[in-house]
Specification:
Layout (H helix, E strand, L loop, with lengths): L1 E9 L10 H10 L6 E6 L6 H7 L2 E8 L6 H10 L8 E4 L9 H15 L7 E7 L7 H16 L4 E6 L9 H4 L4 E6 L6 H11 L11 E7 L2 E6 L8 H9 L2
Parallel strand pairs: 1-2, 1-3, 3-4, 5-6, 5-7, 7-9
Antiparallel strand pairs: 8-9
Length: 249
């Protein structure tokens, strides 16, 4: 039996085509040799969480929800699923990865790299942090807004705002709400699946596709603006170090 197991739990998508950052992250962490076993599971693609949990044999199970914030999945669904784990196993479930204090710096770094590489003037740049949002639950929107405020403190000169897939201000209204020439779009999503491949691109006026191969896509010229679209922050290499900091507490 393993003494200590790390489990990364993510949303996943049966229709998602592309690299999943959670799988890559588990492989990276495995090379550190700090856990006896590092595994991952999804809610909507293989391997499914319920199947993975039924096979776990360990003394301690550390669970990291690979989600941007709190909501039904992280507050109820995952904890309920963990009830099937043997009572002899010590289960430690941590806060969603997206709530960690270093996440704003990761997003800010994404935007700043474009500003520097493309020699943009910050006053001519707007940064749009896009979240999922939900009309019946304000948690995700509130977390996204707080994140934007933290990013604003790091990015001096550029305006940082928020938009959502499912609630106002909608991403599709970006043109009416953007007064600058340049727009950098940052998904507040770990992997995103179809959200980052279809929903967000289409709402911006782009075509659907795999936008995770490179750190960002662009420039795209739409409605008189220049757009750069960044891949989800789950691909950032520093997430491995963040996870190790979380579980070491």
């Amino acid at each position: 039996m393993n003494k200590r197991t790390l489990l990364l739990v993510a949303h996943g998508s049966s229709e998602f085509k592309g690299d999943n950052p959670v799988i890559q992250l588990a492989e990276t962490l495995s090379k550190r040799n700090l856990f006896d076993n590092i595994i991952y599971a999804f809610l909507h693609q293989q391997p499914l969480l319920k199947d993975v949990l039924s096979l776990i044999q360990t003394q301690e199970l550390c669970v990291i929800p690979m989600f941007s914030g709190y909501g039904y999945i992280t507050s109820e669904l995952i904890p309920k699923a963990l009830d099937q784990v043997s009572s002899e196993i010590r289960v430690r479930i941590f806060d969603p990865i997206g709530t960690h204090s270093e996440i704003p710096n990761i997003l800010a770094k994404q935007a700043l790299s474009i500003i520097e590489k493309k020699s943009l003037k910050p006053k001519e740049v707007s940064v749009l942090i896009v979240g999922h949002g939900h009309t019946k639950n304000s948690k995700n929107a509130n977390q996204t807004i707080m994140l934007a405020r933290s990013v604003q403190k790091v990015i001096h000169g550029a305006n940082v705002d928020t938009a959502f897939i499912e609630e106002p201000p909608l991403i599709s209204n970006w043109a009416q709400n953007t007064t600058t020439k340049h727009l950098i779009v940052l998904p507040y999503l770990v992997g995103g699946g179809l959200h980052t491949q279809e929903d967000i691109p289409i709402m911006l006026g782009l075509v659907s596709g795999n936008y995770s191969k490179e750190p960002f896509s662009g420039p795209h010229y739409i409605q008189g603006h220049t757009i750069w679209y960044c891949r989800p922050y789950g691909f950032d290499g520093s997430l491995a170090d963040i996870i190790l900091k979380i579980v070491s507490k």
